[in-house]
Amino acid sequence: MMQSNNWIICVQIVFCLVHYQYTVHEQHFTHLFLSRFGRRPLLLVSYLSSTIFAVLSAFSPSYVMFVIMRFFTGMSLAGISIISLVLNVEWFGVEHRTFSGIIISLDWTVGSWILVGIAYCVNEWRMLILAVTSPLILAIIAWRWLPESARWLTANGNAEAAHYYIKKCAEMNNRTECMTDITTKTLLECAETQTKDKNYTVVDLFRTPKIRKLTVFSGIVWYGVAFTYYGISLNITGFGLNPYLTQFIFASIEMPMKIGVYFFLEKIGRKPGETGTLLLTGLCLFINMFVAQDKWVIRTVVAVLGKAMSEASFTIMYLFTTELYPTVVRQNGVGYTAFLARLGVSISPLIMLLEDVWHLLPAVTYCAVAIGSGLVASLLPETLNTQLPEFIEDIEKPRVQSTKEEIQ
Fold first, then answer.
1. Which of 152, 182, 190, 248 has a 20 to 30 A CA-CA distance from 282?
2. Phi, psi at residue 80, to the nearest 5°?
3. CB 239 within 8 A of CB 298
């Protein structure tokens, strides 16, 4: 038994290190190419590479090839989540930004439902990989109608392309009269003085005092969010229910929770929402430490509530992060926080090994991280009804909050 446990520990540590290394390289290449080519082209590359590597892994003739193909599949899928989120938020104004952030997060919930159904019906692993990869075909088809981010184009001096997409957007929304004051010249003048000969990197996230503070705090919060979320999600066998049913219940609670989050964010704000959901996640974890294992109904109910709060914190933080960072380094900021989140994901399963030291130590660890990151979230600036910052210099200024009348 001891040798078996040692073997499991070794395998988990190896996977942790591999996941960490892949995250480092994935974030580096994502930043490098996005700063040069933009959001839209790299999104297509992520779609295509994810599909190709997933299909290759399904037909792998050996375990080594399977691991390598899944490694590259994970890299490609990470690019999809980062790019699509930023592209989505940058095309919405202040009034509809919360709605757009919540809508895109609902895809995660719907995907979890579909995944449970597919996994229950398809038992052969090769066919299962192909089945869960098939939605990417629809994504590739839909990509042709996606516009490039006008904010990114303007910030990088490509005013002509930005004007083209803004004009198309105005035509779709019957707002062509607004284009009279928006010309290629005005867009170029708006950005050229601040973007000329400037290549932004991750280093710029630590260049000035306020963005440095923002970067450190958001990184800590993201680590805590991912650490606790996957700590709860991966422990689906500890509640006395069928794993498929447990996962379905976990996914089902997300839908009403995210709808509630939308109304909360619209009225209260991002900072209290993120702080509150993380603290409540920690509270649920704390309560479950004192519920006996044979009380599986109570444990499951509390765990589901904790999962809902954790998912809410994930949803809020995705939107919150894109609003915190300026356009010129937004992709770098989201990539940096995603890197720390992945680090949390890779370490989270290893915490369960602490049961050998003390059976409550994993729960105590998850609880402490959730509460600690929630307290750090309270130190971030509020972004409700504020304009997205375009340049790093904008971070050093007080954020301008828009009223409902000004938005309308």
1. 248
2. -65, -50
3. no
Three-class secondary structure of residue 294 per DSSP: coil
Residues 59 and 66: their CA atoms lie apart, in Å, by 8
The last residue of one of the domains, among 199, 233, 264, is 199
* CA atoms lying within 13 Å on the CB side of residue 98: 19
The answer to whether the CB of 202 falls within 8 A of the CB of 318 is no
d(CA 26, CA 75): 6
Q: How many domains, the chain?
A: 2
Report the CATH number at residue 61: 1.20.1250.20
The predicted model scores a pTM of 0.74
Q: Give the integer Cα–Cα distance in Å for 153 and 150.
A: 5
For residue 387, the SS3 value is coil
Q: What 3-state class would DSSP assign to 351?
A: helix
Structure confidence by residue, pLDDT tens digits, 49-58 = 999 999 999 9
Nearest alpha-carbon partner for 389 in 204, 221, 263: 204
- Over residues 222-249, the pLDDT tens digits come to 999 999 988 887 765 555 567 788 778 7
Report the alpha-carbon distance of residue 344 to residue 347 in Å, rounded: 5
Amino acid at 349: P
Q: Do residues 383 and 101 make contact, with C-beta atoms less than 8 angstroms apart?
A: no
Asked if residue 211 belongs to a domain, the reply is yes
